[in-house]
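Format notes (please read before filing issues)

Several people have asked whether sequences and structure tokens are stored in separate files. They are not. Every record keeps both together, in the order shown below: the sequence lines, then the token lines. Line labels are part of the format and must not be stripped during preprocessing.
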Amino acid sequence: MFKEYYRIDERHEERNDLHSYGCGAAYSSEAGKDIPAIITPLQILQQKRPEITYVRTGIDQIDRNVRGLQRGGLSIWSGLRGSAKSTLLTQIVLNAIDDGNKAMLYSGEVTDANAMEWIYRQCAGPSFCSPTAFENYYTTTYETKKEIASWLDGKLFLYNNDHGHDFLRIAAAIDAFVQTQQLDIIVLDNLMSIDIHCICRENWKDQAEIQSQTQFVQICKRIAERYDCHFAVVCHPRKAEGFLRLDDVSGSGNLTNAADECFIVHRVDADFRRLSRKAFGFGNDALIYQCDNVCEVAKDKQNGIKDLFIPLYFEVSTKRLKNTRMENRIYHWNKSGTDVLVADREMQEESRWKQPAQMSNRLNVDASLRRDVPRRF
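Then the structure lines:
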């Protein structure tokens, strides 16, 4: 049923198939017989088109430079293993929800329960995350989780992995759900865990992988356009020999070519410093070397921005990637609107980093405060 629902009508030519939405009706020349093939600039100006709007990410420099995630658009997110691309996207989802939006998350590599454990920590804040016997592992109480889950109810929806990873099933489920529940952002994390070969046709043969990816991105875009929401897709990169670039994203170039926005998330380690200096000539005192992670705007079709590196600061206890070291966003589940331990924790953190180097080496510094380079406030 699902395959028939999303199957593009094979009676039409290949070029027409790629323009089909794939939800029931295929494109045909009959459907567009009253639409002029050639139009003038004046006709375009007089057309009533909806204004382009965006979902704010809560990452200040993304929202300031590219205005956020475009509604009706598609973004590709990539990065090396452990670069925190999934962490950043779940935080963006929470930020969007906090701004009054609704979101759906497909997380193919972890269970729904594990995905929520991650979200609980990000949403809770440092005052509600307690250390455990395991290094760098924090948890929240059941009461806190219940409050957060109640706040997220009706705002955040997770795809049930037991339903299967066949993309046509996923797409059909999303399409049916959005018809009854308006969504603003849909995250697919990640492409490697989704079976897109179900879109493949027998006559594609050697080009099956490329054509399947093309159809995948076309269907995502058409769902986004139809329901005025944004699709964010995580794609792992191929093994890169140098500094990770957009061409290193796995799959065909059709994925990044069709995307409205592309982001690469980097972890600031020795390899990142060495390769980025070689690629861009950054100085040793560059701001991006003083942070923990970097979100690179690699493509922004609407504004033409690329190679924009945005510094982010990782907080171990909450798994948050912050705009500044001292940032502490209080989400609306916290009805008191306060985080009582923040001020004290910030003062302790700052005083520790003001210690002379030889003294700080003797201090029993919390693991969340260790950095390869000194902080700059």
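For reference, the curators noted about this record: The two ends are 58 Å apart (CA to CA). The longest strand covers residues 293-300.
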